[in-house]
Amino acid sequence: NAGVTQTPKFQVLKTGQSMTLQCAQDMNHEYMSWYRQDPGMGLRLIHYSVGAGITDQGEVPNGYNVSRSTTEDFPLRLLSAAPSQTSVYFCASSGQFTEAFFGQGTRLTVV
Amino acid sequence: GDSVTQMEGPVTLSEEAFLTINCTYTATGYPSLFWYVQYPGEGLQLLLKATKADDKGSNKGFEATYRKETTSFHLEKGSVQVSDSAVYFCAHYLQGAQKLVFGQGTRLTINP
Prior knowledge:
The complex is a heterodimer of chains A (111) and B (112). By secondary structure, chain A is mostly beta strands.
């Protein structure tokens, strides 16, 4: 069972570039989320989805877009990368009565 | 608002020492409570959970009890090992809100 798969694992972007972080889960979970992890700040919720076609903003949504066209996939788009978006990004999924399962993370550096 | 506050780290202990990492929360309603662990270079893994007051979660020698009266979920282990070195996150989950709220994480280092 693959669980939650994130790609890429590492990425370096120049300021102003755009990119998409991919997240896929094979557990048929309804809920998917994106978090960013910064030193001393724990994990902060960027966007989340409670099902295909439904997304909502979390704590720190600015500069990021999401869509959920299928149950399995929940990509995160950076529209115009900024150094403040240098972080480690985690995707998570959960069922209605299960705990959250996390991907391995994407370490993003914006120069 | 909803929040989770963890004991600040880093925490450094010797092997076989007793461990406590404090966690308190504020939440509207009755959340489920979790401890997640993050080993170096990896994602978060669920360590243990409790879904109602007075429940005790346990796994790999770690325990935590859901204390509604003190809004706490402290993590304990009687005898730590070098392999327990990791970052530990306390979190709560409100069913209606459909999202996890995390503490800031506590880095634990165990020396042989």
